[in-house]
Design brief:
7-stranded mixed sheet, alpha/beta, single chain, 422 residues, globular
């Protein structure tokens, strides 16, 4: 089955895409053409079903932000990097014989130009480059880029403008300013389409994986059962009652991920009063997904909060508890350094992973047992046992004491001495 790629760009960009698309097997191009990048958000409202959206550059990607936040289709854009700059400059030197000092350039990141010049050991003074990266993060203004080139031309400082924006090219042409578009080499277009296809294929393969969910609801009544049926319908799941309070749901990873992105748990828990715990598992098979769902449910039932949800993936990555937090930890420990620590300290992979995630989540290097206990959601005694094992083997250091009350024992202040990133 072919991968349908919605390509968003100018008419000229679409011609170039069509010229290379036949070199990539099993893709179908659906073109969405705009005159100016500001039109993209409205253009995306006409989008037909597709597997992935591929934008011609950073600008149309930026202007579709409102649409991208509402829909969960994978998206990416063609980056005009050092290869595009080098290719464009080489073409100008060969065909037009114009020196760099007499050229103005606009692009999303000025470092692409300086990197190319440093690599070929050429120093240009002055260098006329405008970088619109900050404009993308604040408020984009097309006229600033046009004015930049036009003023340099009117003052006789440049002989040619290079633009990475289709609409700027058209405007400068109308103003009589010599201008060319930044060149995107064919190999860059091919790699861009290949990346779009790979991203779409990955999402499709993940979405098709089996997902099993267990939901434990106390004090079941007809209203709660109706809510549960509606919930199962939303994720296209079949539902099976295991006992008086436990229900199993059978769906796909794609449907569950869509559900989590919509963050419907707050609403579901609010409408079905009482304690509710849920665990979802992903897997290559129904058996694997079922086992992972049961493990995730146990984590949810151990939470102090009344209601919580965990997800355990086929890679043993535990996510949750939803809706309170969106933490992620690995229950499998396959890094040599961490395997050594787990063996020495006799800590479970889950607890070791949680300690590492705790370290990553903090802005401060220093912490107390109370800080770690709150994060792990376990008793202070359990936390102190974990800390003792890590201290005994040098993976946590006691660096001081903290006196929070006028009376009572001071609390130890710790510092992690464990690799957080691997």
């Amino acid at each position: 089955m072919s991968t349908k790629i919605a390509v968003v760009g100018s008419a000229e960009f679409m011609e170039r895409i069509n010229s290379v698309s036949l070199q990539i097997p099993d893709i179908e191009i659906d073109a969405y053409i705009y005159q100016e990048p500001q039109e993209v958000n409205n253009l995306m409202r006409t989008l037909q079903p597709c597997d992935v959206v591929f934008y011609s550059g950073a600008l149309p990607y930026y202007f579709s932000k409102e649409w991208r936040e509402q829909y969960q289709i994978p998206t990416l854009y063609l980056r005009q990097d050092e290869m595009a700059v080098a290719s464009t400059l080489l073409s100008i030197f060969y065909e037009k014989k114009i020196s760099l000092e007499r050229i103005s350039i606009d692009l999303s990141d000025a470092s692409y130009v300086t990197n190319v010049l440093e690599d070929i050991e050429i120093e240009v003074q002055p260098l006329h480059v405008i970088d619109y990266h900050e404009m993308l993060e604040q408020q984009f203004d097309l006229t600033k880029i046009i004015t930049f080139h036009q003023n340099l031309w009117n003052l006789g400082i440049i002989d040619l403008a290079i633009t990475s924006v289709h609409a700027v090219h058209d405007q400068l042409e109308q103003l009589g300013v010599p201008v060319i578009r930044m060149n995107s080499p064919k190999i860059a277009l091919i790699k861009g389409l290949q990346a779009a296809k790979s991203k779409a294929d990955l999402i499709k393969s993940q979405s098709a994986k089996v997902a099993v969910g267990y939901i434990n609801i106390d004090k079941l009544c007809s209203q709660k059962r109706e809510m549960l049926n509606a919930f199962a319908h939303d994720i296209h799941a079949s539902i099976q009652q295991k006992d008086e309070t436990l229900f199993a749901l059978y769906s796909t990873q794609g449907d569950i991920e869509t559900l989590m992105k919509k963050d419907v748990w707050h609403d579901f828990f609010a409408k079905t009063n009482g304690d509710k715990h849920a665990g979802f598992g992903y897997g290559e098979s129904m058996t694997e997904a079922d086992q992972n769902a049961k493990i995730a449910l146990r984590f949810a039932e151990n939470e102090r909060d009344e209601s919580s949800v965990y997800i355990l993936t086929e890679n043993k990555e535990l996510r949750g508890p939803f809706p309170q937090e969106h933490k992620q930890q690995r229950l499998i420990n396959d890094h040599p350094k961490l395997l050594k620590i787990a063996k020495q300290t006799k800590l479970s992979p889950a607890n070791l992973s949680k300690v590492i995630q705790f370290g990553k989540s903090r802005n401060s290097l220093h912490f107390t047992a109370a800080n770690l206990s709150d994060y792990l959601q376990v008793t202070r005694r359990s936390t102190e046992r974990i800390l003792k094992k890590l201290v005994d083997h040098g993976y946590v250091r006691v660096i001081g004491e903290e006196m929070t009350y006028q009376q009572g024992r001071p609390r130890a202040v710790y510092e992690l001495n464990i690799p957080l990133y691997n």
